[in-house]
Amino acid sequence: xxxxxxxxxxxxxxxxxxxxxxxxxxxxxxxxxxxxxxxxxxxxxxxxxxxxxxxxxxxxxxxxxxxxxxxxxxxxxxxxxxxxxxxxxxxxxxxxxxxxxxxxxxxxxxxxxxxxxxxxxxxxxxxxxxxxxxxxxxxxxxxxxxxxxxxxxxxxxxxxxxxxxxxxxxxxxxxxxxxxxxxxxxxxxxxxxxxxxxxxxxxxxxxxxxxxxxxxxxxxxxxxxxxx
Length: 228
What we know:
Blueprint: H1 3-12, H2 16-48, H3 57-93, H4 100-115, H5 118-132, E1 138-143, E2 149-155, H6 167-174, E3 179-181, H7 182-207, H8 209-226
Antiparallel strand pairs: 1-2, 2-3
Helix pairs in contact: 1-8, 2-3, 2-7, 3-5, 4-7, 5-6
């Protein structure tokens, strides 16, 4: 088969739209994963004491203020990417090429995982808080008994000044009086997303296995032609 014809076949294969949809979903998921990783790395370095090194109190306070700007930026990027993945996935599942039974399973799984999850609603509202209201107040607190222990927190009192929290998000804040540990809330939400992502990709691949396998066969034939 001429190379040009094979290339045309691949582009027009019924599996190509599903393949591209999976690639796009994976890119959106990686945006969230990358921002989550950067945020957690910096917060972990704060808490481990790695960033303080041998600095005295004054030097450390100056550095803390500089690094706090980066922490807020990473938090903003993370919260924005939360909704990026949500919206991109919704758009994909509205496509006319999505089978009705697949859409139903997706909607059911989405509701089971996220709809009644306080941390999910908190994350989505927290993103709106940062975009439409202001930057949250973060603090780091060090205890020396029984051993040195530092934690990075988000103060909840300033959050409650904003009146647009949905009830589940408000409940999440109220369940954390005074402050929320940053790493705890990020990891809690990330665990939900990872579990959902694993299910989503496996279910998607199973639903359209015939189309994707047909495309894969053509792609392998193409790759064989490129090997000298």
